[in-house]
Amino acid sequence: MSIFSEVPQAPPVAVFKLTADFREDGHPLKVNLGVGAYRTDDCQPWVLPVVKKVERLIVEDEGLNHEYLPILGLPEFRSAASKVALGDDSAAIEENRVGGVQALGGTGALRIGAEFLRRWYNGVNNIATPIYVSAPTWENHNGVFNDAGFKDIRPYHYWDAANRGLDFTGLLDDLEQAPEHSIFVLHACAHNPTGTDPTQEEWKTIADIMKRKKLFPFFDSAYQGFASGNLDKDAWAIRFFVSEGFELFIAQSFSKNFGLYNERVGNLTVVAKDNENLTRTLSQMEKIVRTTWSNPPSQGARIVSKTLNCPQLFAEWKGNVKTMADRVLLMRDQLKAKLLALGTPGTWEHITQQIGMFSFTGLNPKQVEYLIKEKHVYLMASGRINMCGLTTKNIDYVAQSIHEAVTKVQ
Predict the structure, then answer these.
(1) Of 220, 336, 348, 375, which is the active-site residue?
(2) What separation in angstroms does the CA of 297 have from each of 103, 251, 266, 368?
(3) Is 375 a catalytic residue?
(4) Cβ–Cβ < 8 Å for 176, 213
(5) Which one of 30, 46, 138, 336 is the catalytic residue?
(6) Is 220 a catalytic residue?
(7) Known catalytic membership, residue 159
(8) pLDDT exceeds cutoff 80 at 283
């Protein structure tokens, strides 16, 4: 008998299982609206032109080698990543109380932050500290904090299914009811999976309650620039919280806005009260990284670093990001218009009111099942679709398929 004979089979990760099913489908009109990656209007992955240019610069740089990076990562990448999040004129950066930890994607940044908080936040070994995540949220949020050892992970109200928008009243009530020093995972922009963000005035109210209740903000920033096409607009909530004096963490991902999905480029930005607190915090994070991946990889970090630190490349990158964001916005406009033209029952204003890669359509599980089985349109069971999966070639078919699902299946 094998020593592994009692190991249970784990269920597949839903989004990757959906992609596998899509690949096995031989239907000529099949559409994949599940995968969380940008696609061109030809439904192909896009390597950003600026990334190609920087990769050539790296290849031709005779001064580079394959020595280990520092444990906390490439210094010029870490500083540039934090600056993109906080802005050129950040007082916190000027006061030398901001630091970064290069991580394996946004997931790695979340995990290092979670591990540190479990060990050191508000005392030692905080497994009982409540962690609040939005309902719904990106599925990995629960897993990351659970695997880091936290035992009390709670949902906070976010999605109002009836009105297909933000449940702001419920969110505020959960903030008020949360125990002091609870940790709240906040989506900086382009909330995943709903695509619904608070307004700036709503963010101000959220910050006011969190400050009064001594709650800790842990921002997940996976779509800066990609959401609206404007880096500053997409970082507004983060910068406002910093201006209000919060100590906070920001898990940054450069998968979407650089198209570097398989390079796993992430950064955990730490905003502390002062440099002394920052130095001690980073020293403990260095210990965590050492026993996790020891040293981060360099290629993706060098691509991002060279781009962000060169004014010409930085400007070109912002143009590339706007190209992606504008295509998503166009698909939102067209899908809503086509559903309205078909007379599809229900309201569809939320499609253009939401932002970023994903749209929470409001389709129920039975309608999703109909779309997959009968129309070969693949989307998550929650009704979430990736707007990048829509193209000028398939949008009529998708709109007609959604219309049929809504009218035939209750």
Answers:
(1) 220
(2) 9, 17, 11, 39
(3) no
(4) yes
(5) 138
(6) yes
(7) no
(8) yes
